[in-house]
Amino acid sequence: ALGLAGADYCFNAPAETAKNMKDNSIEYVTLANNHAMDRSVEGLEKTIQNLDAQSIGHTGAFLSPEERDVVSFADVNGIRIGVVSWTYATNQPADTDWRVNIFWDAYSDRIAVLMDDIAKAKAQSDCVIVCMHWGTEFTYELNEAQTVLSQQIADTGADVIVGNHPHTIQPATWLTGANGNKTLCFYSLGNLISSAYLVDRADETFQNMYEVGAIAQFTLKKTGEKSVEVLDPQIIPIVNHFEGEYTNFHIYPLKDYTEQLAQAHSQRQYSALFTKQWLDEQVNGVFAPSGIPVLME
């Protein structure tokens, strides 16, 4: 009833997408992002209903203020993970301040609520993962909200920060929190699935990097009551491959991507930079300083 839309930055996907996600082993999603209100409250309610129908966990946008105030958990192999999800804004206005977790900027009065959510999640779970929709699109540079809030999130005791929004990979790092705790921080993992050559708002570098994302993996080891250690982090760079007018879609690990595939990618028609070697150089340039292993071969 709300119509399908993939253009003009006001999106709506078919209900079947939730089942596709389930079929592809996606067990939990976060909903606090700038598109959460694209189809108003009705669209958000339908999104949540479709996820619930597939038993996909979610947080970050809500049906009631009571739901907003409850910690959302993912239980994995006996480890209880509290998940916190916030976004810098929504493109279409939210109807109330509890509908979507919005922090606005590094100094807004909502930051106290964000930190309270993390503290509450920490008290009720073994591990806290904070998913932040933040950053400036189409740049490797971090913005003020990312640098200021990431440290505060670490200080509050989060174990892992996963960032998104910029449509490109951005640096990763280990932060040290106020209590000497270590927080694994991925500022942006870029696009997991994307299909756009010649993104009109980006320069050539970031039109190319629109097709490159990363999957973060790490091991959680329970070290005591309500505590874990984050071990063996790895970054798996990926390439969204498609040809011609959006055919032959595949997601390849960058380590398996070839120059032959790069030549066939739609983006290559528009950018001679789009080579396997250039992609490797970009990914190494962004992630190597972190010291976190990057699976490149």
Structure description:
- There is one protein chain.
- The protein has 297 residues and is of the alpha/beta class.
- It has a domain at 16-190: Purple Acid Phosphatase, chain A, domain 2 (4-Layer Sandwich), CATH 3.60.21.10.
- Helix content is 26%, strand content 29%.
- The strands form three sheets. It has a six-stranded mixed sheet. Strands 9-10-11 form a three-stranded antiparallel sheet. A two-stranded parallel ribbon has the order 1-2.
- A hairpin with a 2-residue loop joins strand 9 and strand 10 (227-243).
Short description:
The chain is of the alpha/beta class and 297 residues long. The chain contains eight helices and eleven strands.
Looking at how many chains there are and whether they match, the oligomeric state comes to single chain
- How is the CATH topology of the domain at 16-190 named? Purple Acid Phosphatase, chain A, domain 2
Write down the overall geometry: globular
Radius of gyration: 19 Å
Comma- or semicolon-separated keywords:
three-stranded antiparallel β-sheet, 11 strands, Purple Acid Phosphatase, chain A, domain 2, globular, 297 residues, 8 helices, 29% strand, alpha/beta, six-stranded mixed β-sheet, 26% helix
Task: Give the SSE layout.
Layout (H helix, E strand, L loop, with lengths): L15 H8 L4 E3 L9 H14 L3 E3 L5 H4 L3 E5 L2 E9 L23 H14 L2 E7 L10 H13 L3 E5 L4 E8 L5 E8 L14 H6 L2 E13 L2 E17 L3 E7 L5 H6 L11 H12 L10
Parallel strand pairs: 1-2, 4-5, 5-6, 6-8
Antiparallel strand pairs: 3-4, 7-8, 9-10, 10-11
Helix pairs in contact: 4-5
